[in-house]
Structures are given as C-alpha cells and as structure tokens.
Design brief:
about 10% strand; mainly alpha; about 150 residues; three-stranded antiparallel β-sheet; globular; 3 strands
C-alpha cells in the first residue's frame, strides 16, 4: 500500500476516533447527566438493563480489573445510578443493577448510538454495508490483539 494511502488511512482513523468520543460526550453528557462522565455511561451500558451482573462480568466486558471498576462503581452508587448487593447464593459475589436513574441514563446513551448507526447506514447500499462491516470487524480483531 502506498505511503500516502497509509498516512491518509491513519489520519482518518485517528480523527474518527477522536470525533466519535467528543461527539458522544457532548450528546450523552447533558444537563440531566452532568454528574457523570462518558466513561461512566459506558459502565452503565456494560451493566445493562437485564438481570443483575457480577462485578467480574462487568469488568470483563470493559476490559478492566475488578479493582479498577470498584472505584467507578463507588462513584456511580453514591450518585444513585447503581445498587450493589451480595448474592444470596454466594456471599462472595457482588451483583450490580441499575436504579431507575441508571436505567434512564442507559436508554439515553443507547438512543445516541441508535441515531449514530441510523445516520451512518441510511445512504449505504447493501454491498457497501457488507464492506463496512468487514472493515470494522478487521479493526476489532486488531484492537483485540494489537501487534
């Protein structure tokens, strides 16, 4: 691949990553959710709205240690977004679930992603969509196993 093509591709990826993160933070951290960060929103997303999740499962979904996650969880619990409870079956297990406030933040964040995807795919032909998905899957593989 030509040097200029590599440089352009790198520039596009770096700018895209920065733009997505900045845009998400501006769209998601509104007046209602100004007491948490974009990172906190991703933790809320990892907790999900299903049944309570183990701390270890949430940490794995976020690729962080349970110790790192605990600090963030303390903050989210203090602000009323989550509740933590010990499992009745195994007292060593801590289960996390979203409060009503946390669920509201979850749906707010999810709506941003829905709008983003809709905007991206609205004008794509089926073949373009397949190519985009293959390219993004290759990026995902690289970031899961960087060289």
């Amino acid at each position: 691949m030509a040097k200029n093509t590599n440089r352009k591709l790198n520039e596009l990826l770096v700018n895209l990553f920065r733009t997505v993160m900045d845009s998400e933070a501006k769209a998601v951290i509104t007046e209602e959710f100004k007491d948490i960060s974009n990172n906190d929103m991703h933790i809320i997303e990892a907790i999900d709205i299903q049944e309570p999740r183990r701390m270890s499962e949430i940490a794995k979904r976020l690729s962080v240690t349970v110790g790192t996650l605990t600090t963030n969880m303390n903050n989210l619990e203090d602000k009323g977004y989550i509740v933590r409870e010990r499992s009745t079956e195994d007292k060593r297990v801590v289960l996390v679930s979203l409060t009503e406030k946390g669920r509201k933040a979850f749906f707010h964040h999810r709506d941003f992603h829905k709008k983003m995807i809709k905007s991206i795919v609205s004008d794509l032909e089926e073949e373009e969509m397949k190519v985009l998905i293959r390219c993004l899957q290759k990026l995902e593989v690289f970031f899961d196993n960087p060289v």
